[in-house]
Each structure stands twice: as structure tokens, then as C-alpha cells.
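[Meeting: bench + compute handoff]

Bench side (C.D.) handed over the final construct sequence. Compute side (W.E.) agreed to return the predicted structure before the next meeting so the bench team could plan truncations. Sequence as handed over:
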Amino acid sequence: MSLAEFDVTGQKVLIVGAGRGICKGIALVFAEAGADVAIASLTAATVGKVAEEIRAMGGTALSVTGDATKAADMDQITAKVLAEFRHIDTLVTCVEDSIRKPVVQLPRSSEEGMTEDDRNNVLNINLTEAFQGCRSVGSHLLERRQGSVINISGWASFRGRPGYSAYDAAKAGVMRFTEPVSQEWAPFGVRVNAVAPGSFPDLDQMAAQAYQNRQDDAKSRVLLGRSGKLKEPGYLCVLLASPAASYITGQTWAVDGGISIKHP
């Protein structure tokens, strides 16, 4: 027996940043759940590979490219998806990257502090992209009086760490950005939530030893004793996009093995 409330079959889903990592896992899960998936990323090579994987499993995938931190590019991405899919039911904003640098060089350290470009790039990639995605797709969702937005934040939304001031501020910004947008759009039937993943190493993006090191490190750092599997944030995203979540908006949901509540 299955519950219709969890069904997303036939939904048109745009996932921005789905060329690799967590975002790729989210795209694959939506496809497996029966949604038609539009994958947007900066380069054709990455989105093309994910689209091929979805088509190989019998799903429908559209690949589009552009810089999601720029208004003109994001508008072009949205226009291409609407031309192909006719409408969008769910938007997932999922572009991310980070650097580890102190704000300024610390005493007795050779590590240089962040430059203005470092800070701006991290904020744009992790926070501005969420704004641009919502700005570009929002009018369409509001006009239809239905739909869902899922902004991908991170467990850094809840806890800051030395060396990651720009990244952690951006991820906390995604959580706070989600809250007012959800309030603005709720009267028009559009829900806005955020998902905050923990550590989800992608074997396709790193050497085997580096991947194993991440797994070993998680045994002591993560409450559940392991790093995440790439598809696990996708399962939560499918839930939030489904009718089962029709009474959920404005929330940030951690899927991090408990690391955000673990004491040092």
C-alpha cells in the first residue's frame, strides 16, 4: 500500500547546481520518484552527465547551463525550463562552494586572511544564488498559486566554525532568507523551506583515499558515526515537495547525522 500524499510523479522540478555532489543526489532521487527534472549548472559537461544518468533509468531530464549568481543567466535558465516543461512545480537552489581561511592572518600563523574577492565569491555562490533562483522563478509560482521552493543551506546554519566565516555566514543567510520569503509567499499557496545537509562526500569528486579519510573522520565527529550518502538529502527534498508537506513552510531541516547538535 502506498500513500498518495507522498507522490511527486509528474512534477516539474528545477534543480540549480545539480551537476555534482549533494545536488546531483537530489536530482537522482527526484527522478527515481517520478518527477521530470531540469538540471542547471555552470558547465555543460557536469549537467550532461547527470542528465544521461537520469535518462538511463528511464526518467525525463533537461540540462541547462548558466551562472545562477547572475540575474540574466538565471532568467535564461528559467525561460528554457518553462519553454520545455511549460511550468515548474518545485525549485531547488543548490549551488555551493567554500574556502577555509581566517578573516585576517592570525598571529604565529602563515595562513593568509580572506581577500575581498574570496568573501564575495563565497557569499555569491552560497547565498546570492538562492536569491536569484527565488527572484527568477517566484513570479511563475505566485501566478500559479502553488508550488514549493527548497533552498539548500548547511549544518553551518546552526554552528559557526573558525576558518569558515564567509561560508557559515552565507549558509545562515540562506536559512534566514528562507523565512521571510516563506511569509511573503504563503498567502499565495507557495511554500518555501530549507534543507541543511551535513557531510556528504562525493566519490566522483575526490581521490579514494580522501573519501576514506572523510568516512573515518565521521566516525568520531558525527553522532550517527558515519558521513551521509549522496541521496539522503534528496529523500527529504522529495518529502518537502510532496503533498505530504502541504502544512510545512519557513523551516530549515537538518539532515546531518546529528553533527549540528553535538558538543565539541
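W.E. noted at the follow-up: The chain has a mean pLDDT of 93. C.D. will use this when planning the next construct.
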